[in-house]
Specification:
There is one protein chain. With about 450 residues, this protein is α+β, with helices and mostly antiparallel strands. It contains twelve helices and 19 strands. Strands 1, 14, 15, 16, 17, 18 and 19 form a seven-stranded mixed sheet that branches. Strands 2-13-12-11 form a four-stranded mixed sheet, covered by helices on one side. A hairpin with a 5-residue loop joins strand 6 and strand 7. The longest helix is centred in the last third of the chain and has 15 residues. It is globular.
C-alpha cells in the first residue's frame, strides 16, 4: 500500500539494517548438495502471483531470479543496460528508441526479439493494476522498428526507463509464456534461473540454472524457495523454524521479517548465523500537513527536534538499525553521501498543548508498539499529546489514509531498488486519484 500526497512533512528517524538468519553447518548435520540453498520468500498465495511480474502479488525475490529488466540502476544510481544494449530519447522526451542486446535467449531457448518486448509492454499498458505508474497512461504507441528495435511513443514526457528499471512490469516476460488466447501459462523469462516444472500452487518451488543465460552460469546449482508463513513474520518462532531446518536462510526485505527480540539470542546460538549489513529502507514519521495540528510548520519542527534517533534504534529496534537524518540511506542509488545534521533540540513545550493521533498500522508487532510508546513520550516534550492507534485490517488503514483522517503515521521507504525514485514519486508527486498498488 502506498500513500500519495501532495504535501508531506517528514521526520526521518532510522535506517534499517539488512538482516538474515542462516543455519550454521555442523559436523552432525547431513551435508547439503553442493550449491543448493533453501530460501524463504515472502510470496503470497496464488499460482500466477509467484511467477509473473505483471501481477504484484507474490515474492519479488523469485521474480527477479526468473526475469530481467530492460535497464537497471548501478551502485552510483546511473541507468545501465540489461536487456537493452542502448537507447535514445528524443529531445522532447516523447520518443524512446530501444535497441535490444543481441543473442539473449529465454528459458525455452527462443531468442528475445523486439516483437516479444513490444508484446510485453502492451501487456503492461493494458493491465489496470499498473495505473499507479506514470508510464502506463502515457504509452501512446509501441512499435517494432527492426528485429532488435522497439520505439515507444509517450503522450507526455515521463521518466519511462527509470520506472522500468525498478517496478515489477519492467521485468520482461517472454512471449512463449502465453497461450493463443493470451493467458499466462508458463514461466518464461531470460533471468539466471528457471522454474523447475510447471506452475505450482503449493508453498514451495524450485529454481534451476538457466544454462543459456547471456551472463554465464549463475552461482547456485539449485534454489528451493519456501513461502514464509505469514504467522512467522516478526514472530519469535521464526528463529526456531530456521534453526530446526525449515530453511537455510531467511532475510529481511522490504520490511522487518526477523523479530528483533530473538536476534540477540540467536547470535549466541552456534546452530544459527546472524548476518548484518547496511540496509536501504528508512523509517520515518510522516506528518499530515493538509489538516490537523501538523499543518503548523513550527510544530513539525518542534516534533522533529524532539525525536531521539539513537534511543529509537536502541530501544525500538533493539540496536538493529542506524540513526538516520535523511529520507534515504547515504549513497543509495546516487543519493548524496553527505549526512544532514540532526535537528537542534526542540524548544520548551508551549503552554497550550496539541492533541494528535498517530496511526500505528494493522495488527501491531512488538517492535511497532515500542516505537509508539517512545514517540508518544518524545513528542510529549514538544507539546504534542500523541494518541497511538492501530486498526484491525489493512483496508481500514487504507480508508483512513485516503480520507485524510490522520495526523501522523510511521512509514518506511521501499528500499533497494525502489529508492529513491518510487518513494519520491509516491510521497511528493501530485495525487492523481488512482488506486495505489503494492509491489
Amino acid at each position: 500500500m502506498r500513500i500519495t500526497t501532495r504535501l508531506a512533512g517528514l521526520a526521518t528517524v532510522l535506517s534499517c539494517l539488512s538482516l538474515a538468519l542462516a543455519v550454521a553447518p555442523t559436523s552432525a548435520a547431513p551435508a547439503a548438495p553442493r550449491g543448493a540453498l533453501r530460501f524463504a520468500v515472502a510470496a503470497r498465495a496464488g499460482a500466477h502471483s509467484n511467477f509473473t511480474p505483471l501481477v504484484y502479488w507474490g515474492g519479488f525475490q523469485s521474480k527477479t531470479a526468473l526475469y530481467e529488466p530492460l535497464v537497471r540502476f548501478d551502485d552510483a544510481g546511473t541507468l545501465v543496460g540489461v536487456l537493452l544494449e542502448r537507447w535514445d530519447v528524443s529531445g522532447d522526451g516523447l520518443t524512446y528508441r530501444l535497441t535490444l542486446r543481441p543473442g539473449v535467449t529465454g528459458h525455452d531457448g527462443a531468442v528475445l526479439d523486439a516483437e516479444a518486448v513490444r508484446d510485453h509492454l502492451v501487456r503492461w499498458r493494458g493491465n489496470p493494476g499498473n495505473r499507479w505508474l506514470g508510464s502506463t497512461d502515457r504509452f501512446e504507441r509501441i512499435d517494432v522498428a527492426s528485429p532488435l528495435e522497439v520505439v515507444v511513443k509517450l503522450a507526455s514526457p515521463w521518466c519511462f526507463l527509470e520506472e522500468a528499471a525498478i517496478v515489477n512490469p519492467g521485468h520482461v516476460v517472454a512471449a512463449g509464456a502465453y497461450d493463443h488466447e493470451g493467458t499466462f501459462r508458463r514461466t518464461l523469462g531470460t533471468g539466471p534461473y528457471r522454474l523447475d516444472g510447471d506452475l505450482v500452487t503449493g508453498d514451495a518451488f524450485t529454481l534451476l540454472p538457466h544454462d543459456g543465460w547471456w551472463q554465464g552460469a549463475p552461482g547456485l546449482a539449485r534454489v528451493d524457495c519456501v513461502r514464509l508463513p505469514a504467522t512467522l513474520r516478526e514472530h519469535p518462532d521464526l528463529v526456531a523454524w530456521v534453526r530446526d531446518g525449515g530453511v537455510d536462510l531467511v532475510a529481511d526485505g522490504e520490511g522487518p521479517v526477523v523479530p528483533r527480540e530473538a536476534l540477540a539470542a540467536a547470535a549466541k546460538d552456534p546452530r544459527v548465523r546472524v548476518l548484518e549489513g547496511p540496509g536501504s529502507g528508512t523509517t520515518f514519521l510522516l506528518f499530515n500537513t493538509a489538516r490537523g495540528p501538523f499543518a503548523d510548520r513550527a510544530l513539525r519542527h518542534r516534533a522533529a527536534g524532539a525525536v531521539e534517533r539513537a534511543r529509537l534504534v536502541a530501544e525500538g529496534e533493539l540496536g538493529f538499525a542506524d540513526p538516520a537524518t535523511t529520507l534515504f540511506r547515504a549513497g543509495v542509488a546516487g543519493w548524496p553521501a553527505a549526512r544532514a545534521a540532526a535537528p537542534a533540540p526542540s524548544a520548551p513545550a508551549p503552554a497550550a498543548r496539541v492533541a494528535a493521533t498517530r496511526l500505528l498500522g494493522v495488527e501491531p508487532r512488538a517492535r511497532l508498539v515500542r516505537h509508539g510508546r517512545l514517540l508518544a513520550e518524545m513528542l510529549g516534550r514538544a507539546g504534542v499529546d500523541l494518541r497511538v492507534e492501530s486498526l484491525p485490517t489493512r483496508d481500514a488503514l487504507t480508508a483512513r489514509l485516503k480520507a485524510g483522517d490522520w495526523d501522523a503515521v510511521l512509514r518506511s521507504t521501499h528500499g533497494t531498488p525502489y529508492d529513491p525514485f518510487v518513494a519520491l514519486q509516491t510521497l511528493f508527486a501530485p495525487n492523481t486519484g488512482r488506486t495505489a498498488s503494492s509491489s
